[in-house]
Amino acid sequence: MVELWHLEHIDWLKELPAAVVEELTAGAELTEHAPGAVIFTPRPDPENVFVLVSGLVRIYRASEQGEEVTFGYIHPGEAFGELAAFSKDPRQSYAAAVEPSTVMRLNRDDFARAIQAKSSVVFTIARQIEGRFKQIESRVEDLVFKSVRARVAHVLAQLVEEFGDGASPPAIRLRLTHADIATLIGASRPSVSIALGELEDSGLVGRRQGFFVLNDLAALRAVAESTP
Hints:
Structural class: alpha+beta
């Protein structure tokens, strides 16, 4: 059984009746994952749903050739792999820790019963899913209509909303390589390097303590909206 003090910051759990939370956590398991460790892989009949207790997790897909596409990042308190609770479809994605991460693993049927105990929790989980799909949708649109430079600008502007440090100018508090950005926008690493070089030469993007800094967010967003 997972001790409830581990989960005090997970707001949607607080909305559930105490008896439901106790039943849910009785069959749960906490696991620790080092950076880069894979938490789940594609499988035909996924049996678990996961909740990130602490750390940061990346959701991605990989081709047979090993090429990766990053769908997004999971923050503490969010459920992931949660589609297993709503359908019997195969799981096609991977999840891996970006930082040292603590994950709660739940049986999918227990999770489904628990969130159905209160409609507001279903809506909370649905909003999380909707937010991720909107990000994916916007990147797919970029892939069709935008240059690599515009796509890089767009994803940096998105990431600063999730990981901005609040400084002026803001830095993205996420260790990103050129390859990481390439997996987010569906481009090759060399083309991303060229685009980043252009953005840095124009003064829109810089570096601070190893993090990307967005020196002129308004101008960067203008680049993100540009078309070839």
